[in-house]
Amino acid sequence: MTEKDTDSSPETGSDAAISRRDVLIVTGASIASAGIGGHGANAASSVANIEAPTAQSAKVRLSVNGVSHLLEIDNRQSILDVLRERLQLTGTKKGCNQGACGACTVHLDGKRVNSCLTLAVMHDGAAITTIEGLKQGDTLHPLQAAFVEHEGFQCGYCTSGQIMSGLACITEEHAQSVDDIRFWMSGNICRCGAYPGICAAVRATAQDA
Amino acid sequence: MSTSVFGQSIPRVDGPLKVSGGARYAFEFNQSGQLYAVIVNATIGIGRIVSIEATGVEQMPGVRAVISHLNAPKLTYSPHKGVIDPAVGERLRVFQDEQIRFFGQPVAVIVADTLDQAEHAATALRLRYDAQAPLTEIDDPRAQPIVAQQTAAANARVAADRERGSADQAFADTDVKVDAIFRMARENHSPMEPHATVASWEGDSLTVWSKSQYVLNERAELAAIFGIPPENVLVICPFVGGAFGTSLRTWSHVGIAALAARVVGRPVKLALTRKQMFLDTGHRPRTDQRIAIAATNQGKLTAIIHEATAETSRYEEFIEGITNQTEFLYSCPNVRTRYRLVPTDTSTPTYMRAPGECTGMHALECGLDELAAALDLDPIELRRRNEPTVDESNGRPFSSRSLLQCLETGAERFGWSQRNPRPGSMRDGRWQIGWGVAGSTRGAPQAPADASVRLLPDGRVEVASATSDMGPGTYTSMAQVAAATLGVPVERIKFELGRSDMPTAPSHGGSWTMASVGNAVRSACLAAQDAAVRRAVEDPASIFHGLTADVLHWKDGTLGRKNGEGPRLDQVALLRGGMPIDVRTTASRSTDIANRYSMYGYAAFFTEVAVDADLGIVRIRRMLGVYGIGKVVNPRLARSQCIGGMVGGIGMALMERTVLDQRDGRPVNAHMADYLVPVNLDVPTLETQFLDEQDDAVNPLGIKGIGELCIIGVAPAIANAVYHATGKRVRELPIRIENLLGA
């Protein structure tokens, strides 16, 4: 295992953040609301206390596809954003950033997780496998090859998550039948609708394993 | 074409890249010195911004800029309307005034060093509004339907009013009839890849890596926004992570990314959040339709009346051909169609897979099923009795027509003859079983397109056109066309797409990429062969030097005498030590052909559903689609599109519905957990079959297109199956449990 000290500290900014602000909402026709989450019409006569937390960071050691990284990580940062924006491992995709689509699935200490909902700071010392870690040299992993062979995708955007979930399915022994696979792969949405191909690829790989 | 790769199910040429995470989508084109941008959206339905409190936000860690109408530079916004932009109205101009036209309109953008910083700052920006009550629904009592300007003429592509015969009179005079209202929900495309743009300026030149189905229109729109020549704009998009129409237009966020990059003087990355994907990136408009059909006791149609009302925004008139298929699909002497828009205080709708057709054909194909039930006639037999011999809307012959063949082929394979026609008659334990059928049709368009071909001395062939690949497999199918036309192995072909500096291509949508760009690739390959012959006779070093060009030809990848005498040279031998051969050509459909024929693809869908008798849960058990689409370049890829169409149709029939809060127009289910789309467990075994169809009129390759056709007809086949299972006609989409519970 190699070790890489990735030195790109984010701004901590603990001194620069605004502390505490009370936001006055005026009544009547003029209303105020926060971001896209506020509900303007209902908030018309309420007072919101918004506390802006200060950004802080921590040193986190992550092993990604066998390469160890020591990272200064913004505590708000998900493993997904660490992979994509810090380590340039863009094979893992951001589909919804809300844990509802599965495009960001990676293996964390051997288990599949939605990396968009997984804060990196909570996983110091974790071993992560992403889609980029499956190939052996230039040779596709059998499940990757099966996805090509069985048309397990069209646009390709959900594919990394599908393959990482599919591999986990096989490991979990949830690939005993196509019905089994359908159930255990239902956390990964494919908007192109390549589900029959996805099931076929996982089943074929499970049978050969 | 000789022993050809055309028509072969070769695997996707970009498959290994996609399964290994190597395919790069827009947001993944990181630039040196880049910053992150996050949009802040209006939280009222309509009104104006009273104030923006940016001071504290500007001082938050990492924040480089807070841009809104208060400080944004005035942008040129030259008039520009691409073919995919609404012809009437004016597009949203970002940060140019304080007016709010819809919930979620961008009101500011935060630029910061990291994504987390920008996201956090975006939540902290405080705006005060002067809000009014928006009108958000087309059935609101205050709603005022209008005739869209473009639809006013009777000969318009989409007409507000069109009639042949006397439909209302004939309808009144006929005994057997159906008169029903169909209500269909707004849908959002919800592709897996969120919209994203990375923008970088050098002086007055702009490069964007941006999710787009139409890089040339994006170039033109950005040039218009910033008042710079189109040549100064480069749009790059090698992969599109699904789109279904949402990436045809250049929405506000693209301009915002470029504006932000200009203001901060550094490259900027901007992606929409999933929630923002429901705000200003288009949607299939909500519609209400009336379908009224009458027939003689023998099942001969006497009248069809089809009236549709759809939402649009206040600032643009988005139109689509909801009633067009009704005018020609079945033989009927009296047909009247009507199409109206209701402007609402929401963002502008746009094309979504099979725009218009998907909507209108649902009402027509469900209406026909209701009529068949009223006649006590098999729905396929009803269609057989009303098969037209010509296109009765314009009197033209069909270039080819396969609706009945699709229906009959499918009926046999599905086992349709085993169906007990009585609703509620088939059961599997607690599950009520229903079988449904519906037809599908879609125009077979071809747009003018250019392609370039470069024959390299080492034997490789580079082919390019500024089209896209949102998943159908453009990279693969175009390589097949080139390989087949040139007679060289497909491995030697490299097809490139997705750059605005490539030869002109039409939008990658509307099922015309294969017909348009495919025929352009074919033309360019033929031109390359001619150029090779010229090179052979003109090059003093060539063994053919001095011959006249007409005695030589390129055949099966080699060049030689037409009479078969003497040696033949392959590409490497021909170009040895020389320059590559470069050609670029255009292909288009002649006006003569366009005016002579009625050109459509056809399909039929059969489905079996199971409805829980107590709980109203609907499950799809199996589905079959049969398609008459001319030539199929790659059946493996076409099948994937067809399966995707069925899955999209299952979503349309049973799940997809964007719900607006009527108080402010907010999409309340703007989330992938609440905007339901089919997941793996919702999709059973799906079968597809392509008819062997030769249509020489549509274009030289005989391509009709499939991307839209394969979703049209899926939802009505499901709705008709639900009726057959339960005896209940649910005339809304999506069909929900609530519709099936109770009496």
Determine the mean pLDDT of chain A.
Answer: 81
Our count of helices of chain A gives 5
* % residues in beta strands of chain A: 15-25%
What is the number of domains of chain A?
Answer: 3
What's the CATH superfamily of the largest domain in chain A, by name? Beta-grasp domain
Oligomerization state:
heterodimer
From the 3D coordinates, which CATH architecture of the largest domain in chain A would you assign? Roll
Domain module tally of chain B: 3
The CATH class of the largest domain in chain B is identified as Alpha Beta
Kindly state the mean pLDDT of chain B as a whole number?
Answer: 97
Helix content of chain B: 10-25%
Roughly how many Å apart are the termini of chain B? 60 Å
Largest sheet of chain B, order of strands side by side?
3-6-1-13-10-11-12
* The CATH class of the largest domain in chain A: Alpha Beta
List low-confidence stretches of chain A: 1-53
Radius of gyration of chain A: 21 Å
What is the fold named in CATH at topology level of the largest domain in chain A? Ubiquitin-like (UB roll)
Structure characteristics:
heterodimer, A: 209 residues, alpha/beta, Ubiquitin-like (UB roll), DNA polymerase, domain 1, six-stranded mixed sheet, two-stranded antiparallel ribbon, 5 helices, B: 743 residues, alpha+beta, Aldehyde Oxidoreductase, domain 4, 3 domains, seven-stranded mixed sheet, 16 helices, 24% helix, 26% strand, globular
Commentary on this structure:
The complex is a heterodimer of chains A (209) and B (743). Chain A is an alpha/beta fold and 209 residues long. In chain A, strands 1-6-5-9-7-8 form a 6-stranded mixed sheet, with helices on one face. In chain A, helix 2 crosses helix 5. In chain A, a hairpin with a 2-residue loop joins strand 5 and strand 6. Chain B is of the alpha+beta class. Chain B contains 16 helices and 32 strands. In chain B, the strands form 8 sheets. In chain B, strands 3-6-1-13-10-11-12 form a 7-stranded mixed sheet, with helices on both faces. Chain B has a 6-stranded mixed sheet with strand order 8-17-15-14-9-32. In chain B, strand 29 and strand 30 form a beta hairpin. In chain B, helix 7 packs parallel to helix 15 and helix 14 crosses helix 15. The radius of gyration of chain B is 27 Å and the shape is globular. The relative contact order of chain B is 0.13. Classes of the chains: A alpha/beta (209), B alpha+beta (743). At the A-B interface, strand 3, helix 1, helix 2, helix 3 and helix 4 of A face helix 1, helix 3, strand 7 and helix 14 of B.
